[in-house]
Amino acid sequence: MNHLIQKHEQYALINVKENDFGGEFATDLETISRDLFREGFHNLIVDFTPTNTIDSAGISILKKINMLCSRELGLMVLVSDNDDFVDQLIDGKIRDVTILPTVEEGIDAVFMNDLENEFGAESDDFDDEDFGEDGFTKSEQP
After folding, report:
1. What sign does the CA torsion over 36, 41, 43, 45 have?
2. Predicted confidence (pLDDT) per residue in 60-94, tens digit
C-alpha cells in the first residue's frame, strides 16, 4: 500500500495514496494500525482523499480498526470529500465511525474526543456520599 504516516502526540495520521482500497491494501492498513496501537496510538486519522472505491474487505478491516480504537477510548476518523466514496463507507455500516471532509476537522475531532474522555473520567470520581441530600456536592451548595 502506498501511504505516508505522520505521528503526533495525540494521534497518527495515515495518508492513503491509493485510488482503490481493498484486498492487500486493506490488509496492509490493518498491519500498520496494529503496529501503531502497539506504539500507543489509539487515535487514528486515515486520509482517503485520493481514494475512489472500497471493497468489502476494506470495509471489514476498517470495522476491526474502529473497534480497536473504541476499546481504548480512542477515535478512528476517516477523511474524504468524495461523496461517492463516503456513501460507500456509510453503506458499509461501520459502527460509530467518524467521517469528515478534511484532515483539520479530523484533528479537531480527536482533540474533542480526548477532552470528552477526560471530563468523563473526572465526573466518575464522585461517589454517592460526595453529594448532599439536595444533590449538590459539598462545595456547590448554595
Report:
1. negative
2. 999 999 998 888 888 999 999 999 999 999 898 88
Task: Write phi, then psi, for 120 (nearest 5 degrees).
Answer: -65, -40
Task: Say how far apart CA 57 and CA 43 lie, in whole Å.
Answer: 22
Total Cβ atoms within 10 A of residue 28 = 16
* Full-model pTM: 0.80
Q: Give yes or no for a contact between 106 and 45, defined as CB atoms under 8 angstroms apart.
A: yes
Q: Return the pLDDT at 124.
A: 52
Q: Could you say which of 2.60.40.10, 3.20.20.240, 3.30.750.24, 3.40.50.720 is the CATH number of the domain covering 3-103?
A: 3.30.750.24
Q: Which amino acid is at 28?
A: D
